[in-house]
Write a structure and sequence with these properties.
globular; 305 residues; single chain; 21% strand; 5-stranded mixed sheet; 6-stranded mixed sheet; alpha+beta
Length: 305
């Protein structure tokens, strides 16, 4: 034993280490390398079994548990719209802000969904049309940021109807409009720039009647704001393209420019028709998005599926 080993093997440390040595059947504790062959064979057999068990455990993929304590990042209000090449601009309906926790599940598309409100607590009820949201997410687990809305035939939010639906009453369907991706298959995306998170969202989320990814327009905040105001939406969300996600933080990296007047709260326009069509989903939202100057033929991730 060299000098360093001698210094380390003394006092309580030495006695504790000696207690862990095998007796080799002789009553005297000895290092394994000097044990008789029979004892060494037993030790080798034990370690071989342990190694086999460990290997079998490693071959079983761990469940990619998403965090359950996140809170939404918040935008600071701003009175006037602006243009900026450093920002992405998104229409906002003024619905119920939520984080959608999907999974974990053994395979992509099989995860159950829970919605967390701005206070970080789960909503008491997941609307039936959104219970299968996990099918739309190509991942075993994920956390998406967005808003729950119920819209009228013109695509405008109806907060009173949303409140009724979240209380368990029947009525027009609830849609989930996603605009960020925070966690994917056990990997946090919080420090990733917004542009990259949105790109991942577009790849992961397969839109349908009940869920879609809200598109963004780079740079042209004033044009989007004018169109949003004309369509009676709540406002525009302006987010720095390079911004990380700061859970629970009210940050100047995100700005919300509200639309003034009665439509800011999502009140239906005077010419909106009443409807109870439970199959409408986000179709009015898609129709409205196509009328906005987003520079896109289709909203992010939109397809026929």
């Amino acid at each position: 034993m060299n000098e360093i080993d001698q210094r380390e093997w003394r006092g309580e440390d030495q006695r504790e280490a000696e207690d862990q040595l095998p007796t080799c059947g002789t009553g005297n504790r000895m290092p394994p390398m000097v044990c008789p062959p029979a004892a060494a064979s037993e030790s080798t057999g034990y370690h071989r079994r342990a190694m086999t068990d460990q290997l079998s455990l490693r071959l079983e993929p761990a469940m990619p548990n998403p965090p359950a304590t996140l809170r939404p990042m918040l935008a600071r209000p701003l009175a006037e719209p602006f243009d900026s090449s450093d920002h992405l601009f998104e229409p906002a309906w003024g619905g119920r802000r939520v984080l959608a926790i999907v999974g974990p599940a053994a395979r992509p598309g099989a995860g159950e969904v829970v919605f967390l409100g701005e206070d970080g607590r789960p909503l008491a009820l997941v609307p039936a049309e959104l219970a299968g949201l996990g099918v739309r997410v190509a991942a075993r687990s994920a956390v998406l940021d967005g808003e729950l809305v119920v819209v009228d035939p013109s695509g405008r939010a109806d907060p009173a109807e949303l409140t009724r639906r979240l209380a368990g009453e029947s009525g027009r369907p609830v849609a989930f409009l996603a605009f960020d991706l925070l966690h994917l298959d056990g990997r946090s995306l919080l420090s990733m720039p917004l542009e990259r998170r949105r790109d991942q969202l577009r790849r992961v989320l397969h839109p349908g009647d009940e869920v879609l990814a809200v598109p963004a327009i780079p740079g042209e905040g004033r044009a989007l704001f004018a169109a949003v105001a004309a369509q009676g939406l709540a406002g525009v969300l302006a987010r720095r393209r390079t911004s990380p996600y700061l859970p629970g933080v009210l940050s100047r990296l995100w700005r919300f420019i509200p639309v003034g007047g009665g439509t800011a709260a999502g009140n239906p326009a005077p010419d909106a028709e009443a409807t109870t069509d439970a199959g409408a989903g986000s179709a009015p939202v898609l129709a409205l998005i196509r009328r906005l100057p987003l520079g896109l033929d289709e909203p992010d991730g939109a397809d026929s599926g």
